[in-house]
Amino acid sequence: MFILVVLSIVLMTLDHRFHHVDSLRAGISVLIYPVRLMVDIPTEIGEWASDTFKTRKTLQEENLSLKTQNQLLKAELQKFNYVKTENMHLRALLKSSKEISGKVLIAELLSVDLDPYKRQVVINKGSNDGVFAGQPMVDAHGVMGIVTHVGLLSSTALLVTDPNHSLPIQFLRTGLRAVVSGTGDKNRFELLYLPNSADIKVGDEFVTSGLGCVFPTGYPAGKILEINTDPSLPFASVIAEPSAKLNQSREVLLVWPESRGTGENNPCRLNQEAKS
Question: CB neighbours of 208 closer than 8 A, spacing ≥ 6?
Fold first, then answer.
């Protein structure tokens, strides 16, 4: 035993200082490799047999589990896409709110009137939030409508395409002022009392004029789609489409217009005071 201990110390010293045992270790590893293979063979055979003779029921259960996980992941992906789209809409609304002077409030649509002759929606803001009848409503793309009825927690708004809604506008190209009124169509309204000689053409864009002190001035309202003139009639038939995404927007902006301002020189406020 003493001889073996001394031999071990000598070999360890030679290996540490002079690396003379590396070649010996390499040779021994080559000789031991077949032994390692022999030792691993029973384990590999067992795994192969387990995979080969796995029952049909087990495979069906695993397949069902994978299908369930796949459906859950797809549902999560759809939810993520919805949240991503909603986030984009909110960013667009926030960008639009910077372009509007005064106070604004983000509201969400709760329901849409299914009556084919009405274009109304219900939003989740009411008198508790300071909403008032006659308040303008816009989205990230243009004017949407006006609040007509206010409840404690919700309100009803009339869209610009409703036949009972009218909006004073001004053309960007010519500065011509006019009035648009809803037709009942979900994405169309018409311009009223424009003479046949009016300087307008298809594609002309128009914005809110601010007359009446209801809607914010210069906010996108729509563009002309069709112009029909009849010499026997005094006015042209002009069809336009709104800038707002009336059938897509889920979030809207409620605007406190200048008529609600407190400035002494506010013309809208002074006009209202004179009327009262």
Answer: 143, 167, 168, 169, 170, 215, 216, 217, 218, 219, 221
Span between the terminal Cα atoms of the chain, in Å: 118
This prediction's pTM? 0.60
H/E element holding 117? none
Which has more pLDDT, 83 or 266? 83
Any idea which fold 100-260+271-275 has? Answer: Thrombin, subunit H (2.40.10)
The whole-number pLDDT of residue 102 equals 65
The answer to whether 147 touches 155, Cβ cutoff 8 Å, is: yes
pLDDT at 145: 92
Give the 3-state secondary structure of residue 247. Answer: coil
- The pLDDT of residue 141 is above 90: no
Range list of H helices, the chain: 2-17, 22-52, 56-99, 267-275
Ranges for all domains in the chain classified under CATH 2.40.10.340: 100-260+271-275
Structure tokens, 65: 């589990």
Here the tokens at position 228 are: 């029909």
